[in-house]
Amino acid sequence: MTETRRETRDVAVVGGGAAGLSAALVLGRAQRTVTVVDAGEPRNAPAAHMHNYLGRDGTPPAEFLAIGRKEAEGYGARIVDARVERIDRDGRDGPFRLVLDDGDVLWARRILIATGLKDELADIPGLREGWGDYVLHCPYCHGYEVRDRPIGVLGTVPHAARQALMLKKWSADLVYFPHEQEVGDEDRIRLEARGVQVVEGRIRGLVAGGAGLTGVELDSGAVVPRDAVFAPSTMVPSGELLDGLGCARDEDGSASTDAMGRTGVPGVWAAGVVVDPMAQVIVAASMGSRAAFAIDHDLIDEEVERAVSEYRGR
Predict the structure, then answer these.
(1) 34 exposed, middle or buried (CB, 10 Å; 0-12, 13-18, 19+)?
(2) Phi/psi of residue 93, each to 5°?
(3) Contact predicate 125/231, CB 8 Å
(4) Which of 80, 109, 170, 265 is least enclosed by beta carbons within 10 angstroms?
(5) Which DSSP symbol is given to 172?
């Protein structure tokens, strides 16, 4: 589908996850013309189910997005399966021009960036293969499903010891593998006090079979039996388009916005984990809705100003 300069949409949403689709739903119901451009790479795709979303707990991520697409399209939103390669603007106050990877061009008055983030994993054999299955990252997303089972926490990031302290309430059989992280004296006291076993040594890899994970292998050759492991990732917001637009980013790389998702660049909003890497699906959806309200108000202000100018010029 090619959208020409003659057809300028009210809003282009980049990213068809919870934040983007939630925004499209709100904007469609507000009688706005909106197009969602989605590259089809949701962060939670490897997970079998999503959790902590009231009314949708346990829903497979792909099913959730399919429902969201159908609802948004029901109010007139268009969904385009493509990747936005760049965004520029026709003058200082003109519409935005989105160039897609299939060669199409989309024009829009306002932009919402909801491109999510990428999880950078430690270089441990077996980690990527088990990601979203027996390799987990969020206690609140997955802790309940592995409760009362032998769990390991891998020292893949500096705050991994903190995650081990959190997970203790889900399992009494918990082992922290510092791997290449140094365990400070205070952390060691906290872990011991909490009853978390610390197994030193560099991790050689994860041992898995047809039934899933069986253990964590150390460089010494020892294998510590585990049913699941938590491996905190380095979360990198997908903000290349924000950079191209001149939008500021915070120290962690996330988009810098106000409470409604407005960036420092007029006409550009951001929502979801590209703004808050810790946001779960339900929070990302809320952020998308909130940004949509703000975008609609901004469009209304512009339309009222134009109407008043035309009225006075009669």
Answers:
(1) buried
(2) -115, 10
(3) no
(4) 265
(5) S
Backbone angles phi, psi at 156, to 5 degrees: -95, -15
Give the global pTM.
0.92
User: What CATH number has the domain spanning 122-230?
Assistant: 3.50.50.60
Rg of the chain (C-alpha set)? 23
CATH architecture of 8-119+234-312: 3-Layer(bba) Sandwich (3.50)
* CATH 3.50.50.60 domain locations along the chain: 8-119+234-312, 122-230
Burial state string for 40-52 with b = 16 or more CB within 10 A and e = fewer than 16:
eebbbeebebbbe
Q: Is the dihedral of CA 69, 74, 80, 81 positive or negative?
A: positive
* H-helix segments, 157-280: 160-167, 185-194, 240-245
DSSP state of 131: B
> Which SS3 state, helix, strand or coil, does residue 157 take?
coil
Q: Helix, strand or coil for residue 247? A: coil
- Which residue do the tokens 């996330």 mark? 254
User: At a CB cut-off of 8 Å and minimum separation 6, what does 87 contact?
Assistant: 14, 96, 97, 98, 99, 111, 241, 244, 245
What string of DSSP letters covers 50-79? --S-TTTTT--HHHHHHHHHHHHHHTT-EE
- Assigned token pair, 112: 């919402």
Give the tens place of pLDDT for each residue, 110-167: 999 999 999 899 999 999 999 999 999 999 999 999 999 999 999 999 999 999 999 9
